[in-house]
């Protein structure tokens, strides 16, 4: 939205964006209230409908025009995921590794599928934004200042090269606590993980990269300019949190935890203008999650 756009137009754009994000609750409500409904059809119909309505509005309603890239990106993500997880996944190469192979092979295969989606999103962003740095696909300034967060008691002199590692540690403690509560007692995974460490590290690194690109960097890059940092950050965090209702962690607690993680990692991108700290912190959470998955203590829901 240009500098001479009215305050009213910006408010309308913010309202439309929030309506689109919160409309994803329709999918959750239908799946919870109508357990016999065709789940896959709902998963594609609701977000596709939202994206198409938003795109249509952006062509004839001036205040919504700056959100065209956002709705286009949302539609691209949903359709690409549907194609990959409906058709590509049926190829013999993937079917054999997803049904007959060990858990290690299955999780690596799932990451290959996720990377296909990520590659499409990166390609679209390169067309729209023209350079990787415009959508945070660079390490960024690792020692950039941390904008004060009053309720966390951060100091004005704090920088991300100190704050990032501390965040990774404390957020990992929270993730570990949730996993232990969800999979207690965790004795099944003890003694099984040492040979699986390389697989855990690879899958954690790939999953963190894919999610940071597709769910955070992408949407921040198309929302920051039209809506500002604050609204773009909150919208992305809400989108990321709601996407985890059936993920790991899941449920309302999962939405809150993922939403907070999305918010704090999104801040790191905006303040460093890069993805390193977001990926690094996310990576450590995924190490814990995939350790429990490969140890047989938990099962992650379908993407």
What is the structure about, briefly put?
The chain has about 300 residues and is mainly α. The protein has helices spanning about 5-20, 25-35, 40-60, 70-85, 90-100, 105-130, 160-180, 195-225, 230-240, 250-270, 275-295.
What does this structure look like?
The chain has 303 residues and is an all-alpha fold. The chain is globular and about 60 Å long. The two termini are 33 Å apart.
Q: Would you tell me the overall average pLDDT? A: 86
Largest sheet composition: none
The general outline is globular
- Counting helices, strands and paired strands, the structural category is mainly alpha
Core attributes:
about 300 residues, mainly alpha, globular, 11 helices
SSE inventory with pairings:
Layout: H1 7-22, H2 25-33, H3 39-60, H4 68-86, H5 92-99, H6 103-129, H7 160-182, H8 197-227, H9 229-242, H10 251-272, H11 276-294
Helix pairs in contact: 1-9, 2-3, 3-4, 4-6, 4-8, 5-6, 6-8, 7-11, 8-9, 8-11, 9-10, 10-11
């Amino acid at each position: 939205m240009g500098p001479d756009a009215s305050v009213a137009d910006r408010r309308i754009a913010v309202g439309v964006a929030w309506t689109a994000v919160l409309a994803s609750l329709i999918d959750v409500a239908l799946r919870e209230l109508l357990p016999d409904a065709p789940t896959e059809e709902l998963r594609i119909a609701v977000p596709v409908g939202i994206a198409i309505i938003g795109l249509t509005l952006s062509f004839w309603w001036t205040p919504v025009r700056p959100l065209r890239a956002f709705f286009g990106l949302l539609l691209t993500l949903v359709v690409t995921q549907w194609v990959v997880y409906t058709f590509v996944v049926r190829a013999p190469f993937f079917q054999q590794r997803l049904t007959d192979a060990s858990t290690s092979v299955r999780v690596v295969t799932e990451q290959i599928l996720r990377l296909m989606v990520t590659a499409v999103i990166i390609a679209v962003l390169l067309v729209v934004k023209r350079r990787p740095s415009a959508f945070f696909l660079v390490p960024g300034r690792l020692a950039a200042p941390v904008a004060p967060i009053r309720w966390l008691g951060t100091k004005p002199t704090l920088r991300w090269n100190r704050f990032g590692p501390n965040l990774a540690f404390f957020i990992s403690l929270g993730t570990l606590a949730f996993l232990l509560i969800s999979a207690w007692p965790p004795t099944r995974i003890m003694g099984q993980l040492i040979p699986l460490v390389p697989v855990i590290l690879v899958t954690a690194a790939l999953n963190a990269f894919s999610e940071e690109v597709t769910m955070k960097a992408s949407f921040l890059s198309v929302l920051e300019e039209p809506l500002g940092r604050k609204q773009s950050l909150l919208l992305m965090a809400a989108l990321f949190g709601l996407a985890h209702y059936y993920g790991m962690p899941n449920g309302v607690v999962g939405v809150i935890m993922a939403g907070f993680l999305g918010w704090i990692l999104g801040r790191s991108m905006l303040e460093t203008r890069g993805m390193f700290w977001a990926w690094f912190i996310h990576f450590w959470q995924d190490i814990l999650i995939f350790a429990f998955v490969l140890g047989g203590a938990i099962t992650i829901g379908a993407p």
